[in-house]
Amino acid sequence: MGFGRLSAVQRDQVDEWLPGAEAVADLSWNQVETVVLRVRHAGRELIVKASGDGDHHLGRELDAHEGGFVAVWQRRGHAARLVHSDRAARVLVLEWVPGELAYRTPAGVDPEVHRGAGELLRRFHDQASRPSDGADAAATRRALLWLDTSDAITPEVQARLRHALDALPPIDADLVPTHGDWQPRNWLVDAGVVRVIDFGRFAFRPAATDFVRLAAQEWRENPACETAFFEGYGHDPRLGSGTSERAFGPSHWLLLRLREAIGTACWAHQVGDEEFEAQGHRMIADALAEFGR
């Protein structure tokens, strides 16, 4: 194992930062152009992450770190610190943090793990807020673009989705810093402590967007995880509260889930992930069934 999957420019940059480093594990998911390597250098364990020219995830990860948003977790050891980065070369180095990936393990459906994840996410969301300025309408347009350009969804189901999107108007909910892929796939658990990895989908969005993947996966498998999560989070924004009643509520939650379902099915079809695509189609069926009630 080595650094052969990195570009020549990326390899040169890593060699400058970490001369003589040894790659000891390839942690890549191999679904996008991102390569993730666990490396050893001068007695330290580190993570090297590099992406291809067509991948935007590494830039978002740097936005999260350089914007100071990850610090709320770093201070207590819940996320890795950025050690080196080169945005132009699309490569960065992070500290390695301990823990076992919760995805598809008993920890992934452990209510106490979800309680801890809720506590962490609330601190992340509470750091900042900004006006929507049409972001929700733009998200609906992106969902429609998926329908326009992908053959993953049958024409009959597409028509039902377009009708639902038209009937659920965008809402200008305030935007907060979101992880974007908040699920056990990006949680490390170490003696009950939850740590967070992968900020490649970081962006400002409505807070409830960070709940959608959990709702389609682990909360469906073990509803006690959902209860524990919101006990940790402190409240459930999907229910509506304060002066933002219009921003959160059942109709907006359904809209978020519809858009996520479309994106999941179409993106997974595009990259050839049949299992994830099947999940997207199930999410679509569930959301359309709820819309029809």
Automatic annotation (TrEMBL):
Pfam families: APH. SUPFAM superfamilies: Protein kinase-like (PK-like). Residues 33-236 form the Aminoglycoside phosphotransferase domain. InterPro entries: Aminoglycoside_PTrfase (IPR002575), Kinase-like_dom_sf (IPR011009). This is Aminoglycoside phosphotransferase family protein.
